[in-house]
Amino acid sequence: MPSNSPNAVRARKLLLALIFVTLCVVAVFTYYENRPWKVPEEAKRRPNPIQASTSALAAGRSIYMDKCTQCHGQTGKGDGPDAASYYPSPTSLVDAKHMSSVTDGEIFYQISQGRKPMPGFKKKLSEEQRWQLVLYVRSLAPIPPSSR
Hints:
Layout: H1 6-33, H2 41-44, H3 54-67, H4 69-72, H5 96-100, H6 104-113, H7 127-140
Helix pairs in contact: 3-7, 6-7
């Protein structure tokens, strides 16, 4: 079949249209996967009912080591062994600027609800365990100099 036949031209147009549609779908998917968290105001204002203590931090650390290190890494840098396989990449929990910009309620909401690729833990961990995890996650980021 000659390359300028009507069928060849239609096939090329169809292929170009398919490539264009695929690129559009990828762009939309990338946008929605990398958008900022939308945490309800009520959740943001929710205070942690668990007081920081050695036992609460130890419990939070145990949960973190079991449920979070594969992605967030042992020290919270977002460099766990599975981190490279996810987009968006896991958040660095040692980023003092970022961690000081979110409330305990926001962290609790994010742990509870999850968002692809991060699973939600509302049904996997008790409310107390999720708040203990918030305490431990908070302990990973250095305190910014302006907060001392």
